[in-house]
Design goal:
With 506 residues, this protein is α/β, with parallel strands linked by helices. The chain has 17 helices and 17 strands. GO terms for molecular function: nicotinamide phosphoribosyltransferase activity.
C-alpha cells in the first residue's frame, strides 16, 4: 500500500474531489495553476514571496505508484462516506486504468518554479495539465499540491525577518561582524508544531535564510536528505528552567554550565526566580570562572517586557565583561550576548533592535528565537494561496481560457490561459500567455513530474543561494502581468460579461 500512515492515495484529497471527475464536461485537455494572491499578511508594499517545499510533495506523494490495493481500500471507505442516500462517487475505473496503463503513476504533467525562486504575488508557482480521458482528474491532486503554501509562507516570513535584522546590521555592525548575521534568528518552533512533518518542512524553510535552529528534525532532514550530508543548521548547549531549578541555587546551575561548556558558546536562561537579581548578583559571581574558560556566554530572558529585559541584560553584561566600541560607534560586548526568544514576532524584532541602537549597542550583541510566529502562526490565507482552472479544450477541439472573477471579492480573481514565466530585462519573473512567450527565453516553470518521475532537484546550498540572490535583486513590488496577458484578461472578462447578459436576456 502506497499511502501515508496506511491511508490509501485516492483518499489523500478533499471529499468533493472524487465527484469532479464525473462532473467535468467532455474535454481533451485541461490546465490549472496556483498563485499567491497577496504578499505576506496582505502587505501591498512588499509582494515578494519565496516558493519552497514543492520537492517534498512531489517526491513523497506525487511520484508514488498507486496500486490496486489503494483502490480496494478507498472503495471500501467511500462506500461508508456519503451523508446522503446515494453511493459516494469514486472514479474507480479511471484510476484502475492508469494503474494498468501507466504503471500506477498519476496521469498528470506538473510544471513548477525552481525551489527557492523569489517572485511577486500572482506569479504561477506551479501549473498542472491533464489530457485525453484523464482530463477530468485535473484537480484530484490539488489538495496535496496546495500544501506548498506552508513551507513557502514560512520561508517568506523568515526572509522578511532577516531584512529587519540585516537593516540593523547595516546601521550598527562592522563588516568583520557580519558573519554573525547567519545565526541571529533561531528556530524555536519544534514543540509548537502539530507534527514531525510540519517541523521538518517549516524548519527547513527557515534554514533557507539562517543557520540557527533548535528544530533537529529539520536540521537532519536538510543535511542528509537535501544537502548531501553537508550541515546547514546548528545550535549551542543551553539550559532550560527545569535544569536551573533542579539545582538548589541558580549560581550552581550556571557554574556547572560553565564547567562543562564554558570553552565554547553556551546559553543560560536567567529568569527562573528573579531576573534582575540573576543579572546583578549571580552573573558577577561566576564571571571569573567564565573568563577562565574563555567561551561566549549568551543570556536569555524569558519573561517581562520584551524590550526592557534585553536592555537589562546588555547593561549587566557590559558592567561585568566590558565592551568595545566598533567603527560605527556602537558597543560590542566582550564574550557575551543576549538571546530573546519569548513570544518573538517581526514587530518584536524591530522594537528590540531599535531600542538597542538607541542605547548605543550593536545589533550583533542580540540574537532572537522565534517559535510560534515562525512555524505556527501562519495559514493558507497569510499569502492567499489558491489553485484554479485556467484553460480547457473541449472534445470538439474548442479552446476556452477560463478565469474566476467573483463580483463579491475582487481579490479572488484568477488568470486565464496557459502560462509561461520568463524574466524581463530587470530579472523580474513576468507572466506571459504561452502562445505569446518570447522565443529562446527560459521558462521558469519547469517540468517536475510528467506521468512519472522526471526531476533532478537542486541541493539545499544551491536553493539557499538562489533565495539570497533573487530576494535582494527583486524590487519589493512589481506589475508582473505582461501586456499580452492583460489583453487576454480583458477579452476573457468581456466574453464572460456578454455570456452573462445573453443568459439574462434569454
Amino acid at each position: 500500500m502506497s499511502g501515508f500512515y496506511g491511508i490509501p492515495l485516492p483518499v489523500l484529497t478533499d471529499s468533493y474531489k472524487p465527484s469532479h471527475s464525473f462532473l467535468f464536461p467532455e474535454a481533451k485537455k485541461a490546465v490549472a495553476y496556483a498563485e499567491f494572491r497577496s504578499g505576506f499578511k496582505n502587505d501591498n508594499e512588499d509582494t515578494r514571496i519565496v516558493f519552497y517545499g514543492f520537492r517534498y510533495i512531489i517526491e513523497n506523494y506525487i511520484s508514488v505508484k498507486w496500486t490496486r490495493k489503494d483502490v480496494e481500500l478507498a472503495e471500501k471507505f467511500f462506500a461508508t462516506h456519503n451523508a446522503g442516500y446515494t453511493n459516494f462517487p469514486f472514479p474507480k475505473d479511471l484510476i484502475l486504468k492508469f494503474i494498468e496503463e501507466n504503471d500506477g503513476y498519476f496521469p498528470i504533467k506538473i510544471e513548477a518554479l525552481p525551489e527557492g525562486t523569489v517572485a511577486h504575488k500572482h506569479t504561477p508557482v506551479f501549473q498542472i495539465t491533464t489530457e485525453g480521458e484523464y482530463t477530468p482528474l485535473l484537480t484530484y491532486l490539488e489538495t496535496l499540491l496546495l500544501m506548498a503554501w506552508y513551507p513557502s509562507t514560512v520561508a517568506t516570513c523568515s526572509r522578511r525577518a532577516r531584512d529587519v535584522i540585516e537593516k540593523a546590521y547595516q546601521d550598527t555592525v562592522d563588516d568583520d561582524g557580519y558573519w554573525t548575521l547567519e545565526s541571529r534568528l533561531h528556530d524555536f518552533g519544534f514543540r509548537g508544531c502539530t507534527g514531525i512533518e510540519q517541523s521538518m518542512l517549516g524548519g527547513a524553510a527557515h534554514l533557507l535564510n539562517f543557520t540557527g535552529t533548535d528544530t533537529l528534525s529539520a536540521a537532519y532532514y536538510v543535511q542528509y536528505h537535501l544537502n548531501n550530508g553537508k550541515p546547514i543548521g546548528s545550535s549551542i548547549p543551553a539550559t532550560e528552567h527545569s535544569v536551573m531549578t533542579a539545582y538548589k541555587t541558580e549560581r550552581e546551575a550556571i557554574s556547572k554550565m560553565i564547567e562543562l561548556f564554558g570553552f565554547g558558546a553556551f546559553a543560560c536562561v536567567m529568569d527562573s526566580y528573579d531576573y534582575a537579581f540573576a543579572l546583578e548578583k549571580i552573573l558577577p559571581s561566576v564571571a571569573s570562572q567564565k573568563l577562565e574558560k574563555g567561551g561566549f556566554m549568551v543570556l536569555r530572558p524569558d519573561s517581562g517586557d520584551q524590550v526592557e529585559v534585553v536592555l537589562m541584560a546588555l547593561r549587566a553584561a557590559e558592567k561585568v565583561f566590558g565592551c568595545d566600541v566598533n567603527k560605527k560607534g556602537y558597543k560590542v560586548l566582550r564574550g557575551c550576548g543576549v538571546i530573546q526568544g519569548d513570544a518573538v514576532t517581526s514587530e518584536t524584532l524591530s522594537a528590540i533592535l531599535a531600542a538597542a541602537k538607541e542605547a548605543g549597542y550593536s545589533a550583533q550583541n542580540i540574537a532572537f528565537g522565534m517559535g510560534g510566529a515562525l512555524l505556527q502562526k501562519v495559514n493558507r490565507d497569510t499569502m492567499s494561496f489558491a489553485c484554479k482552472l485556467s484553460h480547457i479544450t473541449y472534445s470538439d477541439d474548442t479552446k476556452r481560457d477560463v478565469m474566476k472573477i467573483p463580483k463579491s471579492d475582487g481579490g479572488k480573481i484568477s488568470l486565464p490561459g496557459e502560462f509561461v514565466v520568463q524574466r524581463n530585462a530587470e530579472g523580474v519573473p513576468i507572466i506571459h500567455p504561452k502562445e505569446s512567450a518570447a522565443p529562446n527565453t527560459e521558462n521558469l516553470l519547469r517540468v517536475v513530474y510528467d506521468h512519472g518521475k522526471v526531476c533532478d532537484w537542486d541541493d539545499f546550498d544551491t536553493v539557499r543561494k538562489r533565495v539570497a540572490k533573487e530576494w535582494s535583486a527583486l524590487p519589493t513590488k512589481y506589475d508582473n502581468i505582461s501586456p499580452e496577458l492583460r489583453v487576454k484578461i480583458d477579452k476573457t472578462i468581456e466574453t464572460l460579461k456578454k455570456n452573462r447578459e445573453s443568459l439574462q436576456m434569454g
